Amino acid sequence: MAMATATTTMAATAAAKFIKRGGSTQMLLSKSKPAISSSFSSSSCHCCHIIPRKKPINNIPLPISFPAAAHNYHLHHSFCTTANVNADAITTSQSGGGGGDDTSDDSSSSMSKIKDAGNLLDIRVGRIIKAWRHEEADSLYVEQVDVGEAEPRIICSGLVKYILLDHLQDRNVVVLANLKPRNMRGVKSSGMLMAASDASHENVELLHPPDGSIPGDRIWFGSPDDQTNLPDPASPNQIQKKKIWESVQPHLKTDDSCIAILGGEYFMRTSTGVVASKSLSNANIS
Questions:
Q1: How far does the signal peptide extend, from start to end residue (predicted)?
Q2: I want to staple 178 with a disulfide (CB 3.0 to 4.6 A). Which of 55, 122, 157, 186 is the partner?
Q3: What is the reported pLDDT for 104?
Q4: Cβ within 8 Å of residue 29, ≥6 positions away
Q5: The pairing of beta strand 252-254 with beta strand 218-221
Q6: Is 0.90 topped by the overall pTM?
Q7: What is the dihedral of CA 72, 77, 79, 85, to 10 degrees?
């Protein structure tokens, strides 16, 4: 009896110390089923017998150091590929409320507005009838250009450094026709020949309209179907007052194939095809 009492006392003490330290429940309980000690017997060789536990193991209070039971840990997001990002922002994005698509929508909307502004420009196919050197400005040519009107226009261009005079004669060109006329050293210039230039501005090429174009054909930005919905060109006063050309020009470039394009997505075209540069790719257009 004394031995049974001592055994009982030792078992109880050990169990108390174990629970106080917050030990693993798997050391107290059988792996096969949850159980607890119920009684002790002096007539048996066993110090205790096992009965099934009435409460599930998940209800046992576990020490905070056991994270799977504590349920108060946080998911950690990887910031390896994203700089200056916080966890809340990532969680919001992953849950569908971060507005990631808003940025794309805003960009698309912005470029659509640039396209609309671009189609207020009166850009036409022209043909140079005659060209000569400006008498008062060494860097300027003077061109007489047919743009489909009753009379040819006189346009001054600073192309002397880049294009031989002979290469201008009887040439099809692209003309921006609704700029306010400017006095260029005594010559009234009514329009601008559009050209592509590289980053260093050492190489300049006039844009050329597609084959089949005729003087006066309108040029627009977008798809062939957009031709039916083109607005009337803005007046020269509107172009100047609203700075329409200034808002459009920075987005005008040639692509990898030397095709003129607005904002990387809207081709510059006539009813017969697209406008291009002869050899300058990824170049600015002005």
A1: none
A2: 122
A3: 62
A4: 35, 53, 57
A5: unpaired
A6: no
A7: -80
**3-state SS, one letter per residue, for 142-204:** EEEEECCCCCCEEEEECCCCCCCHHHCCCCEEEEECCCCCEEECCEEECCEECEEECCCCCCE
Report the half-sphere exposure of 177 (CA within 13 A, side-chain side): 25
Task: Give the residue carrying structure tokens 């909307």.
Answer: 109
Sorted by where each starts, the structural domains of the chain and their CATH numbers stand as: 2-80 (no CATH), 117-285 (2.40.50.140)
Half-sphere CA count of 198, side-chain side, radius 13 A? 8
Q: Distance of CA 33 to CAs 26, 66, 164, 240, Å?
A: 10, 21, 97, 86
266-277 pLDDT, tens digit each: 999 999 999 999
Name the residue among 200, 208, 199, 187 with its Cα closest to residue 259.
Answer: 208
pLDDT digits (tens, 9 = 90+) for 15-42: 444 444 444 444 433 444 444 444 434 4
